[in-house]
Amino acid sequence: MSVGRLRSALNGGLRHALAYGLAGLVVLAALYGLVFPETMVGDLLRLATSKSTLGAALRLAVPIACAAVGGIFAEKAGVINIGLEGLLIISAFTGVFVTDAVGSVFSIPGIWVGFVAGVLASTLLSLLFAVVCIKFRADQIIAGLAVWLIALGLAPFAATVVYGSVNTSSVGTLGTWTIPVLSELPFVGPVLFDASPTVYLMFLVVGGGWYVLNRTSFGRHVRASGENPKALDTAGVDVTRVRYLAITLSGVLSGIGGVGLSLGQVGQFIGNGQTMVNGKGFIAIVAYLFGNYNPLGAFGASVLFAGLDALQLRLQQIPAYAVPSSLVQTIPYVTVIVVLALVGHTRVPSAAGDHYESGED
């Protein structure tokens, strides 16, 4: 065995050992909390598994999971879209702005008109990104950063022009949809079946994304476009068309995540600092890498990160332990760093980031 392969094997073994070790520590801590419920660990376990925390975790996972599935489609097709953050920002703002600006259209409530408008805005911005990367062969990383920076500057600026502040007016939220009978099931009922409609949309996005990628001809074309575009071209499939469709789909799904944040949770757009999106698009990239480009795995990672975010919000409300709020707020981000360090098994599509034109050798 060569030195390089030996080093790679050792690094992979070390990452797996660390991952299993951390998982074991979590399991032991949970068991300790169950046996000794009056301890601090018991309090944390009870807080982490409460209905309110789990419900909040699902709501907070919506923008991350939807953007992650969108990112999977783009990168599986061979285009690295790190502009997911920008797509979330532009859709979040547009959804609120249109909701506030228009009433009902053809008896459709204004908030749903805003929802569709937010998704459309994200889709159009993703199409611009696609044209720049595919037609003009721009560097995909730089183009993705440009999408983020454009949205980061444009949305607060537009809010300032219209509302006199980087924060918009409140327009209300989509509320919750309660499913009869199922919502009355013990424990899982209130969490899964008495939730925002965006949570149900997230389940649809994740399940539908997995099905399309693994059970349809379009999904096979997407995978081939990112692995061996030359072979796909030889088979008579237009690689450029597949990549345009995949990037457009990433814009649609990210748009659902963005308006799911503004209209599904907050009811307004907050443009301070990094805006209300606050890095969720970049966390979505970590989520699909951690999930190894599988929508189901990306969903699990999204719920993990969102759950930690929900947990830190609730920990700040418990003064008994006197943990500094600034320290508590770092929990989700420290977890992201740990996950990035342990993600060693992810296999990036072979042609991701490469340009391709029909007829190229």
Shape: globular
- pLDDT < 50 runs, ≥5 residues: none
Major β-sheet, in short?
Answer: 2 strands, antiparallel
Number of helices: 15
Write the H/E string, N to C.
HHHHHHEHEHHHHHHHH
| Helix vs. strand class | mainly alpha
Q: Ends: how far apart?
A: 33 Å
Task: Please indicate the percent range of residues in DSSP E strands (runs of 2 or more).
Answer: under 5%
Helix content: over 70%
Radius of gyration: 22 Å
The pLDDT mean sits at 87
State the strand order across the main sheet: 1-2
Report the count of strand segments: 2
Protein name: Sugar ABC transporter permease
Organism: Halococcus thailandensis JCM 13552
Subcellular location: Cell membrane
GO cellular component, one term: plasma membrane
Question: Mind explaining what this structure looks like?
Answer:
This protein is an all-alpha fold and 361 residues long. It has a domain at 62-278. Helix content is 70%, strand content 1%. It contains 15 helices and 2 strands. It has helices at 3-35, 40-48, 51-76, 84-101, 110-135, 140-163, 188-192, 197-215, 217-227, 229-234, 239-266, 280-290, 295-315, 325-328, 331-342; strands spanning 177-178, 194-195. It has a two-stranded antiparallel sheet. Helix 4 (84-101) packs antiparallel against helix 5 (110-135), helix 4 runs parallel beside helix 6 (140-163) and helix 4 crosses helix 11. The protein starts with a helix and ends in a 19-residue tail after the last helix. The mean pLDDT is 87.
